[in-house]
Amino acid sequence: MSSILLEREKQIHRTGKAGNAIECSKPSLAGSVSQRACVFCGSRVVLYPISDALHLIHGPIGCAAYTWDIRGSLSSGPELHRLSFSTDLHEREVIFGGEKKLYSALCDLIEKYKPEAAFVYSTCIVGVIGDDVEAVCKKVSAEKKMPVIPVQAPGFNGSKKDGYKIACESLAKLVGTSSREIPEISINILGDFNIAGELWILLDYYRKMGIYVNATITGDGRVNDIRNAHKASLNVVQCSGSMMHLAKIMNEKYGVPFMKVSYFGIEDMSDALYEVANFFKSEKLMNKAREIVRNEFARLMPVLKTYKAKLEGKKAVIYVGGSFKAISLIKALRLIGVRTVVVGSQTGTADEYEMIRELCDDDTIIVDDSNPVELSQFVKETGADIFIGGVKERPIAYKLGLGFCDHNHERKEALAGYEGMINFAKEIYATAMSPVWQFTKQE
Ligand code: SF4
User: Measured in angstroms, how far is the CA atom of residue 157 from the centroid of ligand 1?
Assistant: First the structure.
C-alpha cells in the first residue's frame, strides 16, 4: 500500500522529473496527521522569548503543557517568559464563560510579577465559548496602566503559520509606542529567537561592524525595545515565515525597509553581513564585514575539511518549520560532504520551494506539509543516514535507526553564525557516525 494519500500527491516533487511546481500554503488534509502545529502554538512560539512580558494562556491546561520552559530561548536579563501561566478552564467556565477567571488571573499575575506588558492567548475552547478577551484586556490595561495585548489564536482557526501572523499583529500594537532616539546606523533583528544564545553570536558580529542593534524581536526581547523598534533604519529578517508580516507592517506604517537573511551556514551568514553593510552604503562597514568573514573562513575551513573527509557520501533528510531555513541547511550540509535526499517543511512558500528545486541534485524528494508515514517511507526509500528536524521528527528518526540533529526551538546548542556552523558539523558527525546505529540495521 502506498504511504502517500492521493490528495497529497501534488505536494510532493522529485527533482529532475517532469511535473508542475509543488503545491503548498494550503490547509492540511484531514486524516493525514500533519506535522504542523496549531494557530495558538504558532503565536506562542513567536512571542515566547519576550522575557519581561507575562504570557497568559486562556484555555484548558493542556494547551499550556507544551510551552512550559520547554524551549531553548535564553534571556540575558528577566526570565518571566520561562513560566507558563494558564487560566485552566473547566466545565464551569465552558458553560458560564471564563472572563471573570481571566480578569482575576491577569490582575493577580500582574500584581505579583510586575511585567512590562502582558500577552493573553485565546485557545480553541475560548473561540468556541466566545469570551470577550479583547474587552478584558482593555479593562486590565486601563486599570494597571500597561499594555495588555490579546492574541486571538484559537488553535482550529488555521495552521501554525496563521499563528505567526497573529503574533506579528500583536507585536505591531507595541511598536511605535515609545520614541527614544538611537544612532542612524541601526537595525532591528527580526526572527531570531536566541535559541541556545544564537542571538548573542550575531550581536557580536554586528557590534564589531559598528552597527547599533535597536530591538531583537523576539529573541532575548524586551518590551521597551520593541516599543521603540520603529526608530531603526533597517529590519533584518531571519525566519521570514514567522516575521515577514511584522516587517511589512512596519514598512507600511513607519517606512522602515527590510531585508531577508539567513544566519545558518557560512555562505548565508557572510551574505547577511555583506548585505547589511551594502544597505548602509558604507565602505567602512563593508571592510569590517570582509574582515570578519576572512578571519572566520580561515578559522573554520580546516576544521570543516576534517569533518567533510569523514562524512563524504552521507545522505540527509531535512524537515523543518519554514523552507527558507532548509535552503541554508542544504548548502551547509554540502560543505561537509553530506547530500540532501529529502527536504520539506511545514509552512514553505512556492518561491522558496522553487529555490530548493534549483539547488538540489536530481532525485531529491521535496515535500510540503508532510506526515510521519510519508517521512518514514522517504527515509527508507533513500537510505538516509541523518534526519534534521524538530521535536516531532526525533522519534521518527530514532525508530528508524538513524542519526538525528535538532534544528528547532528545543535545542541546547547554538547552530547559527560561524560558531554555529562548527557546532552543526560536530553534531552531524557525532550522530551520523555513532556506533549505536550498527545495532539497528536489519540483516
Ligand atoms: S489545537 Fe486548540 S486545544 Fe490544541 S493546543 Fe492548540 S489551542 Fe489548545
Answer: 10
